[in-house]
Design a protein that fits this description.
This protein is an alpha/beta fold and 383 residues long. It contains five helices and 30 strands. It has a 14-stranded parallel sheet with strand order 4-6-8-10-12-14-16-18-20-22-24-26-28-30, with no helix packed on it. The protein has a 13-stranded parallel sheet with strand order 5-7-9-11-13-15-17-19-21-23-25-27-29, with no helix packed on it. A three-stranded antiparallel sheet has the order 1-2-3, with helices on both faces. The longest helix is centred in the first third of the chain and has 11 residues. The protein is elongated.
Length: 383
Amino acid sequence: MCKFFSFTTKGDGVAMYFGPEERKKIKSGELNYNEDSHTSINDFFGYKGEAEDSLNRYEFIFDQLQGFRVDQINTTDDRALAEKWVKKFIKTKKFQKILNEFGGSLDLSGCDLKGITLPTSVGGSLYLRGCDLKGITLPTSVGGSLDLRGCDLKGITLPTSVGGSLDLRGCDLKGITLPTSVGGSLYLRGCDLKGITLPTSVGGSLDLRGCDLKGITLPTSVGGSLDLRGCDLKGITLPTSVGGSLDLRGCDLKGITLPTSVGGYLDLRGCDLKGITLPTSVGGSLDLRGCDLKGITLPTSVGGSLDLRGCDLKGITLPTSVGGYLDLRGCDLKGITLPTSVGGSLYLRGCDLKGITLPTSVGGSLYLRGCDKKQISSFVKKI
């Protein structure tokens, strides 16, 4: 089933559509039709070729508040009868059987679910954003993503397994048990996590921006990005590995051990790095703007960009290779060896270039505004 249920009429308000049995045969290949194609429905009921142009076409769209939609009027206008029929039909056991046979995604965002029984299992994604879930039983298993943004979860039992992403932004999680495993991303931004046990494994990203993490145990593994911007990390153990990006902007890192490997970017803007060991490998960009780097060892390789604007580089060894841009605006480069290769642009505006050797390769632009003209001339001759 797509995001809609299709049916046709002869202008008499009597619907023709594919029921549960026909849909089973379509799925098995016994019937060569598309479940919610008007042309397929008309052909099945004997209206082939030009004959199908004598029928009215209607749809009930799940992801729109109005639901009922007129696709085409070809004969007596019976839209009022058709709308009345479909709004009754979607609350019948027959329609529930259609839903229970359903193996793809189901989008009911913003719909009135009163009297609706959801399938016990949804093979694809289930979107219920903004729905009133009072009296609703969620499927025990959702193969794809589950979107419950803004829903009141009081009395609701979440599926034990979500194969895709789980979006609970803005939800009150009091009394809620999260799935033990989320195959995709988990969005809990701004949620009160008191008494909540997070999944032991999150296959995608984990968004906990602005959450109070007191008493919370983070997953041991996060396959995607981990966003903890503005969180109090006191007593928190970070995952040993983050497959995507790690955003800790504005966090107090005292007593924190960073992952040994970050697959995406690492953003530590404005953080106090005293006593911190940076990952040995950063696959994306590394942003340390405004940080005190005293005693810090930078990764030997940064796959993306490296932003050290305004940092004191005394005693710092830069990576030998930077895959993206390198921004050293306003830095004192005395005694600094630049990377041999910079994949993006190199920003050295306002820097004293005395004794500096440029990278042998700069993939982007070279910015030297405000540097000594004689030093610039010397560089230009070498380029």
